[in-house]
Each structure stands twice: as C-alpha cells, then as structure tokens.
Amino acid sequence: MDPLPEGWLWGTATAAYQIEGAVAEDGRGPSIWDAFTAEPGRVKNGDTGDVACDHYHRWPEDVALMADLGVNAYRFSVAWPRIQPDGRGPGNAKGLDFYDRLVDALAERDIAPVVTLYHWDLPQTLQDDGGWMNRDTAHRLAEYAGIVADRLGDRVAAWITLNEPFVHMTEGYGIGTHAPGEALLLDALPAAHHMLLGHGLTVPVLRERSSAPIGLTNNYSPVWPASDAPADRAAAAAFDVLQNRLFTDPVLLGRLPDTSAYGIAADELPFVRDGDLAAIAAPIDRLGVNYYSPTRVRAPGGTGPDGAGGSVLSEVGGHIEDAGLPFEDVPIDGHPLTAFGWPVVPDGLHELLTGLRDTYGDRLPPILVTENGCSAPDDDPGRRDQDRIDYLDGHLRAVHRAIGDGVDVRGYFVWSLLDNFEWAEGYAQRFGLVHVDFATGARTPKASYHWFRERLARYR
Length: 460
Known about the structure:
InterPro entries: GH, Glyco_hydro_1. The chain contains 15 helices and 13 strands. It is of the alpha/beta class. The strands form 3 sheets. It has an 8-stranded parallel barrel, surrounded by 5 helices. The chain has a 3-stranded mixed β-sheet with strand order 6-8-9, covered by helices on one side. β10, α14 and β11 form a beta-alpha-beta unit.
C-alpha cells in the first residue's frame, strides 16, 4: 500500500465502562450504566460491567498486549464517576492516580494516549438532576475536563471530548435502549444540544492546560435512499441531518442544519440560547470518525422488506415505529453481515470520508478514524477469526483510497483491543482483537491480532 502521512497513528480503542470493572473501588461513584444494568431486562442475560475485563487491575497486561501488537496510539476513555463520584467537586485522587499510571506506562512503550473524556458513563447524581436534558451538565463536563487535564495534560497526545453523541442521544434519551433508559423520542433533542455545548465549553478549558490536539467523535453513516423516488431521497436527507449533520454542522459551521423535515424550525428551538452556537463552534484540531456501516432508508409507509440496515435504528426496530419520523430503516442487501447483523461495506467508509471533505471543505479538520471493527462469532477454538481479518483489510484499503483522493486522514483505531461489555448486548458480541474469557479474565490474542501486528510491521 501507499505510504501514510507523517505522524500517522495506528491504534486500538476501548471505553472505561466496557473494560474497567471495579465499579465500587477506590472511591468511584455510580454511573448511569451501573443503574441501567441493575434493572431487570435492560441488558442481555442480565450482564453488567461490574467486572467486565477487569482492566482496572490487569491494565499492565493490556499495555503489554498493545506493545506487542505494535500500535503507537491507544484511545481510551476516562470514567467520569471515577474522577468525580458525584459529578461535581474536586477530583478523586485514587481515580486520577489510576489514569496517571496508565498514561505513564503507555509513554514508556511509545504508545500515544488519546483520551476520550465522555464515553456515556455519566455520574448517576447528574442524571438524577436531569442528565443531558439539563443544561447544567454541559458546565459540569467542562469542570471535569479541567480536573483531568490538570493531571494528564502534559502527556496526552490528543483529546476527544465526546464519543458518539448521536448514539447516546438516540438510544439513551430517545428510545431508551441504552442508559439512562429515557424514551423521549424527538423531545430528546435538548440532550444533543447540551452535549455539544459541553464540548464547546470544554475546548478552551483543555487549551489552557494542554497543547494536544482537541476534537470530538461521532458515529457517522453514509445514508442511501431505498430508491430514486423523491420521497425516498427526502427520507435519506432527513436521516443524514439526524445522524450526521446535527452533530457536525454546529461544530464546524457554527449553525444548526435544516430540521424542517421533522417539523422543527432550527432557529426557534427554546433550548438554544444566544452565544451557544459560537461556543460550540470553538475551533477544533481533529474530527473523530467512527464507522461501522451505511444506512438505507425509505419514506414512511413504503413497501418492501424490513430488517437490519446496519444503523442504530436496526438495533431498536419497533421502538421507532410510532415516533413520527420522516424515514424508515430498510435492509442493505448483497453484503456479508457481522455477528451483530450489520452489513460489511468497506466502500462506505471511503464514501463517508470523501463526503465529509466535500460537505465541509476547508472547515474540515484532519480526520482520525477513531473506531472501526466488527463483532464476529466466537465458536472456533482456534480463533481463526477470518471474518474480522477480511473486515479490517477491506476498511484499511478504503482509508488508503480516501487518502489517495485527497482526504486528510491522520490515524486509524481498531474497535476493539479486547472483547468487552457491549452495552445492551452484554457479553454476547465480541469485537476484540484479543479474546477475553469473562469467567477468568484470561486474554488470548486472536488471528486478527497477529494479522494486524504483521500489517503494522510493514510501516515501521
């Protein structure tokens, strides 16, 4: 393959609640995911993140796995309730010490720490006050970010303020399939705005404390109309606004996208106050792109097959049938499926990256592909793992094509280093390069781990 840009980041990615465990140790407070998993029926098989991969205790082993893999970057998230158990006030020393040790160990192995500040584990005390529906939570995010940056800012290689606000709003506040389990449908839009406001308020806090690049990450999806009919094209445009533009236009362009397809006048939203959009548009240095598959939609009431289209909507099915949305999710046929049922479409990543460039032009900062990977069956004792190898190979080729077409991409992070707690799916979906025996915690590198290590060795 062609050479990559200088300073390219090869990495893996994880999230605190999905791997750390130790939910009641060293002063950590409860998060919305602790509360959510305690409710019967919320998570498959009643699984929780109480132990997860036990990374809180086994982190030296996991750093050694990354070093052996040959990555030069690691994207991880800091657990907000481990730093501020009540979501407010001074930092918890033991929680900060944990991440301090982790960052130092990464530096010793020449692995750049890429830190995500918020990956969905809101302190439960803030949720008790309304969570992201409460404007004050945006200010609490900035306060928390300052505490983390005061301790780690001299060694962090890049900051990510938010992970996938679209998914968090939709599944957490819109339809309730993720924590905190609210089902507000379109009334969840204030959560989107307050997350973006929190991002905007956090950027100058980080600038004061660190010279590392700053960005945020969203789950992006190319949106395909089910047909060339004008109604289906309009449905695709409406979904593009909800998943992609709602979380990017305010950051890069300083304005809200056209929300008229939802019967909403963007300039009349009562929760958007004077000065908010200017704060949200604080200049950023990177845009994080998480990609798993495209989305195919049609106009409501269309005819044809129903099924998984690969987007967040495919995970919720009937939960949105009565939401009054101007689109319906339909399958993407003709492609292999992951164990999650998502279509494998590497060309969709190329389409997405070039589409972001075409949409935002010189407003688009350099891109990091901050998550890309697949769940694959775990029923082979030899862990041949060919599905994941094929998936990664195809998507890496798509990234190379996008770079060749002039898109400024600076790094690629596989989701995920470890099999982990996959939110509402519990431990049923395995995304890791490394197999985890959740009964014992034992780690076993899979064939995809060895394949990726060989691929990285070509670039040294």
